[in-house]
Amino acid sequence: MTQTTSPAPVTVTTGPLSPADVVAVARHGAPVEIAPDAQEGIAASRAVIESLAEDTVAHYGISTGFGALATRHIPREMRAQLQRSLVRSHAAGSGPEVETEVVRATMLLRLSTLATGRTGVKLDTAQAYAALLNAGITPVVHEYGSLGCSGDLAPLAHCALAVMGEGTVRDTDGVLMDAADALSAAGIEPVVLAEKEGLALINGTDGMLGMLLLALHDLDTLLATADIAAAMSVEGQLGTDDVFAADLQALRPHPGQALSAENLRAVMAGSPIRDSHRDPEACTRVQDAYSLRCSPQVHGAARDTMAHALTVAGHELAAAVDNPVVTPDGRVESNGNFHGAPVAYVLDFLAIVAADVASISERRTDRFLDVARNHGLNPFLADDPGVDSGHMIAQYTQAAIVSEMKRLAAPASVDSIPSSAMQEDHVSMGWSAARKLRRSVDGLTRVLAVEVLTAARALELRAPLEPAPASGAVVRLLRAGGDGSDPVPGPGPDRFLAPEIATVTDLVASGRVRRAAEAVTGPLH
């Protein structure tokens, strides 16, 4: 979360957060404040809950047990214990710790729902969530525990447990410690939960939504980078940009395809390498292979899928997911809005997208390495083939990642295991879909890095011909390093390749490859 400048505060209102707000808090440590209108809405819905506390009619989550135990009436003197017991018992996660940015996104999104005034929590409970975020205290949340229905129960319960001053957390320096000690050191008073609050803190799709928003943020950069990598590969393999012409793309009017083709044209513009074989009499190739020629169609479909996922995320950001919920006219009603299906579906869809974009990237890379298909370059781009292996095994690494990504593309949302004595008999598995999408996004980053690394080497091997100005800017970025990155040397005898792949992976993930090209082309889509 370290930044050179402090990020602007994010204000949580009764309305939806923006995706950028979530990234700012989750990843960059932006402070959080609760707007006055949200504070008023929280207080108003709490008054509704308190008015029902003495009602002789049972109200789910206020005067009853939970799930399959909802038939039991709970007397008032036991309700604080009921809420504590709910959170403690549901904080049953297992496995490795979830990343800090995911936990912060989860807490912020739960706070955003509390701020809608539809959940009935006390104001100090909502303020405690903001206080933990601002203090950099991150509850320990585990990989396994959510079925993606009734919300991300176990992950959210671990967050609620920390707000109560129980369980384990990591402080702003990442030190593992008891929640009570961390809250005390930060001057935060643990929350004592009252009627309805335990349910309000754990009944949400916040974990899967947070991971969706982080993935969409990263994929925006990665798809632009995929276009840059594809353009460098087409150029380095003496391919043509004629097929990316706007009038040809308009014959199949998918919006993402047009944007991707525009990016490819911009990156390849002014290429002496391309100009060297523009004469049809000198170049006998009728058309390029699919992995080159169809890049806009694949990358464009990925963009359109992202656009759909962003629409779903926008609906979810505007939602007040809880059960029961306090309606605007003061009713307290049970509902099924906690079901994660809408989010789970697009998380799975994006894993398919990431796998296919990685797959076509690996195919473009492989063409550079095959002397029968690379149009005059050395086998494997090796300096002395036979003595040197060049980028042979870099492609193996790509292939291993792509194979893993294909397995990760198998949807989680088609699975369901009944729980809670068959009361919760159909679940979304959205949390699982989100977890595998994070692995897919990481894999795509690494696959694109190998393509950029390989294409840069090939472009330099075309000397004395020069690459396009935008491609050349990316090559210079790799060779110069800077901003914490070591220079990646150009063509030559074999070297220890893993550090170079790691460096370019960081350059891709940070957006520096994209920005290097955009310094020439202007903003890419």
UniProtKB/TrEMBL annotation:
<dbReference type="InterPro" id="IPR001106">
    <property type="entry name" value="Aromatic_Lyase"/>
</dbReference>
<comment type="pathway">
    <text>Amino-acid degradation; L-histidine degradation into L-glutamate; N-formimidoyl-L-glutamate from L-histidine: step 1/3.</text>
</comment>
<keyword id="KW-0369">Histidine metabolism</keyword>
<dbReference type="InterPro" id="IPR008948">
    <property type="entry name" value="L-Aspartase-like"/>
</dbReference>
<dbReference type="InterPro" id="IPR022313">
    <property type="entry name" value="Phe/His_NH3-lyase_AS"/>
</dbReference>
<dbReference type="GO" id="GO:0004397">
    <property type="term" value="F:histidine ammonia-lyase activity"/>
</dbReference>
<comment type="similarity">
    <text>Belongs to the PAL/histidase family.</text>
</comment>
<dbReference type="InterPro" id="IPR024083">
    <property type="entry name" value="Fumarase/histidase_N"/>
</dbReference>
<dbReference type="GO" id="GO:0019557">
    <property type="term" value="P:L-histidine catabolic process to glutamate and formate"/>
</dbReference>
<protein>
    <recommendedName>
        <fullName>Histidine ammonia-lyase</fullName>
        <ecNumber>4.3.1.3</ecNumber>
    </recommendedName>
</protein>
<keyword id="KW-0456">Lyase</keyword>
<dbReference type="InterPro" id="IPR005921">
    <property type="entry name" value="HutH"/>
</dbReference>
<dbReference type="Pfam" id="PF00221">
    <property type="entry name" value="Lyase_aromatic"/>
</dbReference>
<dbReference type="GO" id="GO:0019556">
    <property type="term" value="P:L-histidine catabolic process to glutamate and formamide"/>
</dbReference>
<dbReference type="GO" id="GO:0005737">
    <property type="term" value="C:cytoplasm"/>
</dbReference>
